[in-house]
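Input record (one chain):
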Amino acid sequence: MTHPPHHEPDAPRDLVGIGIGPFNLSLAALAHPLAELDAVFYDQRPAFDWHPGLLIEGATVQVPFLADLVTLADPASPWTFLNYLKARERLFPFYFAERFHIQRAEYDAYCRWVSENLPELHFGHQVDAVRFNPERDVFEVDFTQLDSDGEAESLGRTYTRNIVLGIGTEPYVPEPLKPLVEAPAVPVIHAADYVAHRDSLLAAGHVTVIGSGQSGAEIFLDLLRHRPAGREQLRWLGRTEAFAPMEYSKLGLEHFTPDYTRYFHALAEPVRDRLGTSQWQLHKGIDTDTIAAIHAELYRRTLHGGWPDAVLTPGVRVRTAGRVATTKVELHVEHIQQNTRSRLTTDAVVLATGYRERPLDRILAGLDPYLRRDNRERPRIDEQFRLVLAPTVTGSGCQVYVQNAERHTHGVGAPDLGLAAWRSATILNSLTGEEAYPLPRRTAFTTFGLDQQPYVPNPRRAPALTPLVQGR
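The corresponding structure, as predicted from the sequence alone:
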C-alpha cells in the first residue's frame, strides 16, 4: 500500500478534515487505504477523547458494536472493532461475553487505538479560518499549532480542494441556568463533566438531576447506586410527560437507515422541521435496560420497609434559578400539565440537557458570501452531505462536506453512530468521483414514501461474493 509522497507546502490537498471525533475518524479510517487520496485531519485537542464526562462505569453504547467506524461500509477494513479486539488479544473474551452493545469506555478505547495508528491525523492543531481563493480555485485553511499546554506555538496554512467539517456538538445549557454554570462556586454542572465531579456530587447533601433522556437516567442511576439507603436525597426532573423508553422496535430502527435518510432529505423543508420536533423518542428516550435498572434499584431499597428518599417527576420545566446563601441552588419550576409553580432547594444540580450542533458560522465566516441558506438561514446541504455553495466555488471542483451538522436536512440519523461508516463512504465516493466503497441500494424493509420504489434483486441471479480480504 502506497501513499502520496512528501507533501509540498503550497500544493493543494485533496481533503482537509476539521475536527476528529468519531465521524471524521471514520472518514479518515476509510480514506487511509485510498492510496491516491492526499488527506489530512486537524483537531485542537491534544488527543482523541469521546465524551469523557459520560464514561460512567457500566454505561453502554446504544448501538451494536457493528456500528463501529468502518464495518457497515467495509467489514474487511483493518480498523474494525473486531480487529481492535484481535490486536489486543481479546477476541475470545469478547466472544464468550456475548455482548452486542459494548461499554462506552471500550468504544472510546477502540477509537483511540484507531486514532493513534493513522498518520493523517494531527492533534494540537486549531483551525482558525477557512477561505476560498478564486485565483487558485482552492480553499485556504489557516491553523494554529498548539503546544502540550494548549498555548499557541506556530501558525500554518494548508490548501485543499475539499473540506469535511466534523466539529461535533457542544453541551447545551438552558438560559435560566447559564448564570449558575458560569459561577464557579455554585455546584451546577453539565452532564458532559459528570465523571470529573462525581466524587463531589456523591458527597453533596441533596442533588437534583435535570433531563429525562439517556444521560439523565444514567447519572441518576449512578448516584442512586452509590448513596446510602434511606438517605439518597435525590431528585430527577424532566420536561417530557414521562420517563419514556427510546423507540427500539425493529421497524422503528429503520429510521436510522440510508433509505430513510434519502426519504427525509427529499421532503419539503416545513415537513422536515415538523418531523424534527415530533421524533424525539427515536433518539432522546431512555433505553429499557436503564429504566429497568433504575426501577430495580429503587425496589431493592424498599425490601426492609420504607421508600427511598428519591423523587422522580416528569413534565416539569425550570423557569428560573438562583443561589441561596451561596452554597445552595433554588429552582423555580412549573408543572406543565397542572399549570402549577413551586420553588425547590438543592445542594447541587446536574444538567443532563443534551448537546447542540456547534454553529458553523464562525469557522465558515470566510465562506459566507458563497453559502446558500434555507428559509430559516440554515446552510443548505445536498444529498451527498455537501454544503450548497455558489457556482463560482463548486464550478471549480471545490466542495465542503459536513458530518453531524445536517439534522435539519437529513433527519434523526445525523448524529447516530450507526450511519457513520455509510456517510463517510458516501462522502469519499462523491469526493473521488469513483465507487471507492460500493454501498447497498436498499437498507430497509419499510418503504417510506409512495414514490419510493424498493429495490428487489433478481431472485434468479445469485449475487457475486465479495472476498473478505480485499487488495487495494
